[in-house]
Each structure stands twice: as C-alpha cells, then as structure tokens.
Design a protein that fits this description.
Elements: H1 2-12, E1 28-38, E2 47-49, E3 52-62, E4 67-74, E5 78-83, E6 91-98, E7 101-107, E8 115-133, E9 141-144, E10 147-159, E11 164-173, E12 178-182, E13 196-200, E14 206-216, H2 218-228, H3 232-243
Antiparallel strand pairs: 1-3, 1-14, 2-5, 3-4, 4-7, 5-6, 6-8, 7-8, 8-10, 9-12, 10-11, 11-14, 12-13
Length: 244
C-alpha cells in the first residue's frame, strides 16, 4: 500500500503533464484500481477481521455537469473472521462477500485546478456466500445475514490528460449484518453445546480505493455527428444554389 501511495504522490506532483478537464452531462467515468478495506467493529463486538484488499471497478454516469450516479463492484475473495476473546489466530469462520454499491456524487468545479474533488452518498447491498465454520466451530453451520445499508463517500480526481485521471476514493460503510452458528453439537462442544450462538457484527469498515479513471464523452460526439448531417431540405437548397 505504501508503494501505491508513493506512486500517487509522484503523479500528483507532475503538474506539467496534467490538464484540467471539465465534466459534462452525458459523460461516462470508468474507474479501475485496488481497494483496501479496513474493518472497524464496535468495542463490544465478539468478532474481528483482518484488513484485506481486492481489485475493484466502477462506472459513473453524469446526470448533470456536477451530479454523477456511480455503481461500484469488487472482485470477491475469501474473508476470515476470528473470535476476539481467543485472539486473531483463532479463526471461527470464513466467507465470500458480494457488496455492490451505488452512490450519487456531487463534483465540485474549482477554477484553474487539475484537482476535481467530490462527495457522495449511497447504499450498499451485502450478501454472503460459501460460509464455512472453522476452529472451535468446525462441524457447525455458520451463516451471515444479508443487509442493505447507507454509505458516505469523499474522493478526488487528478487530471493527467484530457481523458485520464488518477483517483483517490474513501468510503465509510456501516453494515447491519449479523451472524449465527447452529448444529453446535457437531463441534468439539458435543452434547454440552448450546442450540445456537448469535454474533452481532457491528462492522463499520473504511474502504480506501486507488484508481485510474477514464472519461468518455461518446454521447457528445454522437450529438455532434447528428448536427453535422445535412437534412433533405438543405440538400435541395444546395442543389438550387449550385445552378445559380
């Protein structure tokens, strides 16, 4: 992560190669990069999770010159959680998370600047797959509940060329997902096991993304092509004028 931050710092200092590019209604912003997820739990949460990262991609559509609707998605990977009381090495379960999210972003327009800051608010839908009980819960059934939650976002684009920018994006998430384990009699606890254990996750992770952003103005080009077309009436007038 330190190497990526160094690369971004070097790019941000290269003012002589950058250009300030204005956003326009109908533009597409496609971002691709890597996202670091920093889990943050309530102080009384019984579970913990290590930091992890994943490749991500997003597509934003400019509804106006300042408002963009963006859809964000990451490539899922296996995540492990552990029991706080037993320490970080005591894994109790693993799962694969799918968490697409959508945000409405407002882009500020600072004059004569290569920086393009924005803020956003949106929703994140979290679903979980391939749950597996580990460690002291081996043999049990482990499940995480789906959730729909709010998110808040701040970000910054830095123009390198007319259509390419570097992007730093920070999202604050709050997930209401809970977890539970059943069939505990199949674990090492045997007949002394409770029927069910519920885990209140209380996770509010911070997602930090480093991206390359591409600006596409294809819709504007289409409008330009249409405006350049000669209508039939104009063709007749051109023919008449050519005979005069």
């Amino acid at each position: 992560m330190k190497q990526l931050l160094l690369i971004f710092t070097l790019f941000f200092s290269a003012n002589s190669f950058s250009q300030n590019t204005a956003l326009e209604k109908g533009n597409l912003l496609v971002k691709s990069g890597y996202t670091f997820l920093i889990p943050q739990f309530d102080n009384n949460s019984p579970v913990g999770m290590d930091r992890y990262g994943m490749p991500t991609v997003s597509v934003g559509y400019l509804l106006t010159d300042s408002l963009s609707l963006e859809v964000f998605m990451g490539i899922p990977s296996t995540i492990s959680i552990y029991n706080n009381g037993l320490g970080g090495s005591a894994k109790i379960a693993s799962f694969v998370a799918l968490s697409p999210n959508a945000t409405l972003q407002y882009y500020f327009k600072p004059n004569n600047s290569n920086f393009r800051p924005y803020v956003g608010v949106g929703i994140i839908y979290s679903s979980f797959h391939h749950e597996k009980a580990l460690g002291v819960l081996s043999g049990a059934s482990f499940s995480l509940e789906k959730s729909l939650d709010p998110l808040f976002q701040i970000g910054l684009d830095y123009s390198l060329t007319e259509n390419i920018s570097l992007n730093l994006d920070v999202r604050k998430l709050k997930t209401s997902s809970g977890a539970f384990a059943t069939d505990l009699d199949k674990t090492i606890m045997g007949k002394y096991a409770p029927e069910r254990i519920d885990y209140s996750m209380g996770m509010q992770p911070l997602a930090i993304s480093l991206n390359v952003s591409w600006l596409f103005d294809v819709p504007n080009k289409e409008k330009k092509r249409k405006s350049n077309r000669v209508r039939p009436r104009q063709k007749r007038l051109l023919r008449v004028s050519s005979h005069l």
